[in-house]
Amino acid sequence: MTALASRGQLRMSLLRYALVTVPLVLLLGTVSGRIANSGYGNPWFDALAKPDFMPPGWLFGLVWTILYILLGLALAILLHARGAQRRGRAVGLFVVQLLLNFAWSPVFFAWHRIDWALTLIGAMIVLTLALVLLLWPIRRSAALLMLPYLAWIGFAAALTFAIGQLNPNASEVAPQPVTTDITL
Length: 184
Prior knowledge:
Blueprint: H1 7-35, H2 43-47, H3 57-80, H4 87-110, H5 114-138, H6 140-166
Helix pairs in contact: 1-3, 1-4, 3-6, 4-5, 5-6
């Protein structure tokens, strides 16, 4: 058979990719955060001083859910671009920056290493910017889907830096033990 795929077949092919990549990215991001006990409710994090521009806790869950969906869609679009020049390099770069993203929560929330987390997020920003530039000629829509993520990790870098400045001995911060004693 020498016929080209129809538009409908191409859409279905992209949909099949998205049905795998979107839930996978969302699941891996969620698992990374859960394993690290990310966010409010983490005793170490709750004990840290926070900057004035720190958003409420519920916003992080909402934003990361949306961003992981966008990342999954961008990956599906990229994988669907079979035959495109530099596609393999873009997929590799996408995977590396995503692995750094998944590593950030354990480094920050579980290991209490704000300095390493800041280095990681700096690398994420550089790699994501490079990825956007690499994606632009391959699939502009995938590059555009990466821009909200790039903006959010820039904001997250500012938060991480500010938390590090407010808590110079953050790795030594010990949360107060919870007690059920009643003091009179």
